[in-house]
């Protein structure tokens, strides 16, 4: 018997939707005059919510590999948006935080991000969101075993 997912390219739908959202958000940043990529925003968002997080933890939260996280942190540091400091307990570990300029940028960009989220969600209901997250969580878990 054929499984329903055998004939449906659900990954393609997920991938193209993510690309469309990323494009819309990047365009919004650029049109508003911000020199920031969506990947940089993702790290800024996580640093805002987790100040003093290690680079390894940041990579796990954002599902980005270590070289990518390092490269983005380097860029954010050069832009004076983030800073590294050595951990007191482990001098081999860096803890990353936003600078005051990074926090200010977060506050400026959050309304643009919320606007994109609302645009994407459109007229879908809270119940739709619950179904969506349940399905996405199930797919994620199917690949976590």
Automatic annotation (TrEMBL):
Residue span(s) of domain HTH marR-type: 11-141
Gene3D superfamilies: Winged helix-like DNA-binding domain superfamily/Winged helix DNA-binding domain
Pfam family, one: MarR_2
Range of residues in the leader sequence: none
Cross-referenced PANTHER family: HTH-TYPE TRANSCRIPTIONAL REPRESSOR YETL, TRANSCRIPTIONAL REGULATOR, MARR FAMILY
Name of the protein described by the UniProt record: MarR family transcriptional regulator
